[in-house]
Amino acid sequence: MSVHIEAGKGEIAETVLLPGDPLRAKWIAETFLKDAVCYNKVRGMLGYTGTYNGKRVSVQGTGMGIPSTLIYCYELINDYGVQNLIRVGSAGSFQEEVKLRDIVLAMSASTNSSLNKARFLGADFAPTAGFDLFMKAALFAKENNISIKAGNILSSDDFYEEDPKGFQKWADYGVLCVEMEAAGLYSIAAKYNVDALAILTISDSLVTGERTTAKERENTFKEMIEIALGTLS
Ligand code: ADE
């Protein structure tokens, strides 16, 4: 057991899907995995291990934001030997052509978090997706006719941004969308030399103000999970 995860050694698979919402972890385990066993209930941050097409895989809630995500990623990597970390979450669009329900593979994650500024003494580390996972996910999507977009995203510390046009500068530089975790995930994966990828579905648009309904989110979520599970080899 680690500080925040009560699984025994060997109870967590080498590849872990990481939704922010622990109840989403339960839904993924119940919907997609065979013989799923719950290995964590500490702080209600549910985690499950099961199989998908005969391959062992886990799914672990992370909570919202970089600090919470880093706690779970650190323990998964250092206490449980996890090698592949795949965030599956939602994001808000910064671009007119990035529509509600689109799926985005985050090639890189810009951030307004001070985490890496502090680590790199004011210089800018560029948090980047792992090449193997990125390639596998992109290929799986192509082979299965699932349309994706890929590019730079923003991991923000601030969900309720004060300035409604604050996103425009990021948009001007081609950033596709905003979420709150990927830059932390990519940074810790780089530090410990493991593979990481964030796959996102667009749940709202900062350009148009539109939002998906819960039902619509569920449907697109399915394709995103299929891409994540399609990387298992
Ligand atoms: N996740 C989904 N939509 C978001 C938004 N608008 N800002 C930050 N994270 C998000």
Automatic annotation (TrEMBL):
| Gene3D superfamilies (alphabetical) | Nucleoside phosphorylase domain
Query: Could you tell me the EC number(s) of this protein?
Result: 2.4.2.3
Instruction: Give TM regions.
Output: none
Nucleoside phosphorylase domain location: 16-223
A single GO molecular-function term is: purine-nucleoside phosphorylase activity
Keyword set includes Coiled coil:
no
Q: Which GO terms describe its biological process?
A: purine nucleoside catabolic process
Keywords carried by this UniProt record? Glycosyltransferase, Transferase
Q: What cellular-component terms does GO give this entry? A: cytosol
Q: Which reaction does it catalyse?
A: uridine + phosphate = alpha-D-ribose 1-phosphate + uracil
Coiled-coil regions in this chain? none
Note the SUPFAM superfamilies from the entry.
Answer: Purine and uridine phosphorylases (SSF53167)
Determine if Metal-binding is one of this entry's keywords: no
Q: Which NCBIfam families match?
A: deoD (TIGR00107), PRK05819.1 (NF004489)
Q: Which family does it belong to?
A: Belongs to the PNP/UDP phosphorylase family.
Q: What is this protein called?
A: Uridine phosphorylase
